[in-house]
Amino acid sequence: MASNAYSLARARQSSTLARVNQVLDGFASRDRDGEILTAVRHFPAREAQWAEFPEWVRADLRAAYNAKGIQRLYSHQAAAAQDVHAGKNVVIVTPTASGKTLCYNLPVLNEILENDDARALYLFPTKALAQDQLAELHDLNTRLANRVGVFTYDGDTPSDARKAIREKSHIVLTNPDMLHTGILPHHTRWTRVFENLRYIVIDELHTYRGVFGSHLCNVLRRLRRIARFYGSKPQFICCSATIANPGELASRLIEGEVEVLSGNGAPAAEKTFVFYNPPVMNRALGIRRSYINEGSRVAQEFLKHDLQTMVFANSRLHTELILTYLRQANPQQPGRPETIRGYRGGYLPNERREIERGLREGRIRGVVTTSAMELGIDVGSLDTVVMTGYPGTIAATWQRAGRAGRRSGSSCAVLVASSAPLDQFIVRHPDYFFGNSPEHAFIQPDNLEILVNHLKCAAFELPIGPREKFGGVDVQDLCSRLAEAGYLHRAGDNYHWTHEAYPADTISLRSVTSDNFVIIDITGAPQVIGEVDFPSALTTVHEKAIYLHGGQQYHVEHLDFKERKAYVKQVNVDYYTDAIRYTQVRALEVAATERLPRGGGDQGPRGLGLCHWRSHGDVLVRSQVVGFKKIKFFTNENIGAGQLELPENEMHTTSYWITLERALLESLPYTISERQSAMLGMLFAFASVATLLLMCDGRDLGAAIGERPPAPGAEGEEFSPVRLEDAVAAGAKEFFEPNLYLYDAYPGGIGFSEPLFRAHELLLAKTRELIQACPCEAGCPSCVGPAGDLAPKAKEAALAILDRLVSVEAGS
Amino acid sequence: MGDKFSRLAALRPARGARDNLEALRAPDGDVDPLARLLGAGIARNHYGEHLSIRNWFATPEFVEPTGKALELLLRKSSGPQVALNPGSNPRKRPASQGEGHVCGAMGDPERWLFLDTETTGLAGGTGTYAFLVGLAWWASGGLQIEQLFLRDFSEEHSLLQQLAERIAERPVLVTFNGKTFDWPLLENRFTMTRAIQAPKLAAHFDLLHPARALWKLRLGSVRLMDLEREVLGAERLGLHRFGDVASALIPQYYFDYLRGGSPDPLAGVVKHNQMDLRGLAALLGKICSLLDEQGSLEEEDPLDLFGLSRFLERRGEPERAQAACSQALRVGLPGEFRPQARRELALLAKRKGDWERAAEIWHELAGDSKGGMEACEQLAIYYERRRKDFDRALEFTQLALMKLERQGWVSRDPLWHARRMRHHEKLMCRVERLRHRINGSKSAPLLEKAAANAGAR
């Protein structure tokens, strides 16, 4: 006992750096072939760059900051405050822990102290973040004799407090959902705020991409419209994590000019970033050790060396697994509080606050969390971060890594890769990751479904005038169609809302359709255990499916399609189910298309006319779940199948696609089935790389293969819509000239297709790199898909196709 | 009484049914079949036009409410004064009842305006319009009704302008659920114009809450229509709801009309609104007569009397509450309400300091299955504090404990369990204290003996 305490004390004395290095040395000694630690990068410490408070900052506000221990500003804070003060819309791009809240609080508070009428609205993507900011603002406010009214206004605000908040707040902290359903449709109660609205702060801007961003853009259109009605023109202050196009995203969201401030004057501690690839167990099948176990082991090594550690997992289930493992390894000392904690969405606010405090004070030595900790909740500095699984985007990876070493002298972040293609690509191409090319964030606010929904809300809020545009879109035509449908009525020149319903209630900002299936466990007394959204319901809770929830298996007894309910019973079986989905894509309208290499392929690089096309445009996607396979755990044997009769799902969306010309396919020295398999494998990898480039969730993008219409002669001509034979199912008959589609998995599309079309060459190159660098023999889940599903030479053939596509590119 | 008649007399000649109102332009029948259908004229101001439908009705007759009744209506309910939580202190009376003081326009029935709107939905928010605003005021001993109607949304400014003028003339609003629905909605509409200020009200009597207190027990629901039939004597007032439109369909009728459909159902909507206004005026008379001190309670239904007593009690009139409650019991309150009424009486007596009377009632209630526990607890307090009879107090506390335990775990609500736990603890504390006092009141050796006993255990 005594010696243990002694060694611990000694460990504390040695620097964090030394202890981190000890752990890393330990890993390195086990990694003889250099296959495990694929990258170890050191980032030197950076000095702070200071600036004085701008001279327009009031003495009392400066004193309040001084009292908090802030005597000077970082250079980027001063620059941002200056630009805001000058009246510009800004987007501030800085990593976590660089003091971004000061960038907006300083100018906003200054203005409010100068002018008691001024109002500001702060938008945060989650309620927890708003609470966090509230605490920060309260702290400042007490030093300002509580002259500023600061309140959160969200679903948790008691109804009897709401009226006072509307009257008294100078700063309202809320979220886009509350703005959408609770504030804008009741703007008459917020007259004082809207008449004097000076600032809108949008924090964590990078979270507003895809569907959520497209919705927010429309909510902001409504907000600006109402502000205009009350005679105010608010200025926007946005904060974003590092993404490739913060300025573009911000200016698309607020539909105005934005100044981008990307300097960072905050000091940074020395940091080591490590990529950890779990060792291969079966080279032929490409099977690696479980990244969950490996991640836990890495975290345990750090904890053993008394390094405060945060472990990120990509799902709730995984947080629980890792937590269990770490607790077993670090049993609670009798009479002492638990030192290893979990932290995720389902925890109660009080419990979260307690954990945050525990982390700041160092009582808690380890925390296992989901993306909940990615955003700017203040938990102080940690020594190390372990990410089990690639977070999905470069930006999110840096965000998570930023949790380590906020203040301490040295820190370490470890990324433990899973065997998913994306993870494997990242850890095997460290230069891609560290090469400073974070993803782009895209939105498509003019998606018709989203636009029309918000137009309804807008009409509910204020009648729509005769020449009025909605975020630059001419909506008169849409209004007249809504009038025909009975939602609007034209009186005089204006369109008025004429429906009993309250439109905002039926529109959820977090997806396109708010249609969810409820999962009811009927093992005992019926109990709701979860929800799945419509698109995944068909593949995960169809009848006879095995549904996994909280580590428990459930058998789906009955799917009530009309009532959107799935009834399940707990079971314990040794298989899982995999739905067989049948997808058809048909091009409806081609927005752009191009034959490559440019100038035609007749005299192509190899004189073979090996050409392909890239295109994007509108498509009709028709999909149906027609059956399912039962697959045994561990061996992945197919032990049975079933047929299903589920309704067909049809959706108009946008897509990007590649067409392979006949000559190119025929130049491949492979059998028909190998070629087919190769194309499927290539598509598998292609989709993974596309999600990587797009900074989107894998589920946002659908992949399908289909026949190109048989009229390839006419260059640049539109494809005439043709019914495709179809299907992704392997073993279908040979495609003459196949189209490989990557489509937006949301009705109407959310803006991925055009960027993919532009990134065509990069996509092909990265896909080839991914497959080429994979050490498996004939395909694995990390590249072209599991070997068992494909023809033997599929991987080789896929590479051959890509070689032709890429070399054609290079030659052009 | 004489005063009332002189007022009435003064009212009559001074105000003709139509005087003081601007002239309306007759509608051009061919162009405006709707106006003809509704019997409307066209009102005009600098914002434009809208329809106005004016009618005078002899019923309900004007009833002059007394100052006391009005004061009670204006007084804020302090919530149930009788503690629902046995043992806890009854809430303090509202400190200032100054707001209840009837002055100025409030006491002058000529300046009251009955208001009821028909809207394009119940959801609220900025996209809900009031397309028909019904107004009524006393005139010539009867009721003058004026209904303002939007032929289209573009007429809203002109309608609101006129509404603002009417409210300026009569700034005391009388509504049914108007505090939560009609008035906030109209305030929204005024704000949306950015031109016409929402007029200031001198007072707002919302009759929903008193009506609920008074008649919910008997009627179950207190829709205006039910009140007319069951309380107000619809027949006598000439209120016929025969063929009345269903409220739920009203928005759709209006939308249909806007889109070029038939305007016919709107005549029914206008009629419906008139009926509501007349019912509202009659309801005010009825409530005021019940609240009036001089009013006779002889003919009232016992359940209504019980409701009245609770209403009075909440608005700080314990004396009259007690009278109404006793009267209800005397007239023959249905069995299931009797223990509850007796409990109220006991608590009222206790509040007045009439401990003996209260104890008497608690003794009667002690055997009751529902209220028995509270009665026992109250008796324990009585014997401990008033009679200093600690043995009996202990006996009743233990009885209360037994009853509490016998209640079982009937609710799944965790708060209920928390409350029950706290209650249990409180009773245990009382038992402890009483034991201590019983021992203390006896000789010191006994105390030592008790201590020794405790030590031995």
Report what the structure shows.
The complex is a heterodimer of chains A (about 800) and B (about 450). Chain A has five domains: about 1-30 and about 270-435, P-loop containing nucleotide triphosphate hydrolases (Rossmann fold), CATH 3.40.50; about 50-260, P-loop containing nucleotide triphosphate hydrolases (Rossmann fold, 3-Layer(aba) Sandwich); about 450-505; about 515-575, no CATH class; about 580-810, no CATH class. A seven-stranded mixed sheet of chain A has the order 1-11-18-17-14-16-15, with helices on both faces. In chain A, strands 6-7-5-8-9-4-10 form a seven-stranded parallel sheet, sandwiched between helices. Chain A is globular. Chain A contains 25 helices and 33 strands. Chain A is about 35% helix and about 25% strand. With about 450 residues, chain B is of the alpha/beta class. Chain B folds into two domains: about 1-90 and about 100-290, Nucleotidyltransferase, domain 5, CATH 3.30.420; about 380-455. Chain B has 18 helices and seven strands. In chain B, strands 1-2-5-4-3-6-7 form a seven-stranded mixed sheet, with helices on both faces. The longest helix of chain B is centred in the middle third of the chain and has 28 residues, at about 265-290. Chain B is elongated. Mean pLDDT of chain B is about 80; it is low at about 5-20 and about 80-100. The chains are: A alpha/beta (about 800), B alpha/beta (about 450). The interface between A and B is medium-sized, with 26 and 22 residues.
